[in-house]
Structure prediction request, 225 residues.
Amino acid sequence: ETGVTQTPRHLVMGMTNKKSLKCEQHLGHNAMYWYKQSAKKPLELMFVYNFKEQTENNSVPSRFSPECPNSSHLFLHLHTLQPEDSALYLCASSQDGRAPETQYFGPGTRLLVL
Amino acid sequence: EDQVTQSPEALRLQEGESSSLNCSYTVSGLRGLFWYRQDPGKGPEFLFTLYSAGEEKEKERLKATLTKKESFLHITAPKPEDSATYLCAVQGGEYGNKLVFGAGTILRVKS
Prediction:
C-alpha cells in the first residue's frame, strides 16, 4: 500500500448504528486530518492530530469521535448520526502539521445515513 | 474576514481550447496556496504549491501562477482526461496552519 488509504470506501448506516471509519498513511507523516465534503460545499476541516495529539476540533458534534492510536492510523467513530451527516469523509496527512505544508488525501469514505 | 473564492463555478471547453481558472484570496500573511485536482468519488490529488507572489509552476498542460490577491491555473490545449474539479486552498492569516479550501471549479473538456 502507498499513500493514504481509507476503509470502507462506502458505508450505509441507520441513525441508531455505530460504525467506524479507518485511515492509514504510509508516508511517514506525523500529522493527520479528517475533512467532510458535502455536495456543492468546500471541504470542511473536522479534526487535526499532530504526533497522536488532537490539536484541532472544528466545533464538530460529539456524535463524531476521532481516535489516533499512532502517527500512521486515524479513526472516526460514528454514532447516532443524522441524515445531514451524509457526505464524503476524507482523511489527509502531512509531514508535521506546520504551515506551509502539503496535505495528501486518501480516496475518501462515501457515507449515507438513512 | 479571510476568504477563498474560486471562479467560474463550472467551465466547459472543447478539446484544445485553452483557458484559466481563478482563485482569489483575502488572506493576510499567506503561507502557501495549493492546487488540487479531484475526480468524482475520489480524494483530492495534489498538483502545486505556491509560496510567494510572482511564483509559477508547471506540470504537463497545467501552469499555476500567484499574485498578491489571486492565483490562476492555466490549462493549455486541454484533453478530455483533464475533466475534473479543481480545488484551491490556502494556509496563513487567521487560518494559521489550517488548509482552507475554495468551493472548486468543475471543468469539462469535450472531444
Summary: The first strand of chain B starts at residue 4 and ends at 7.
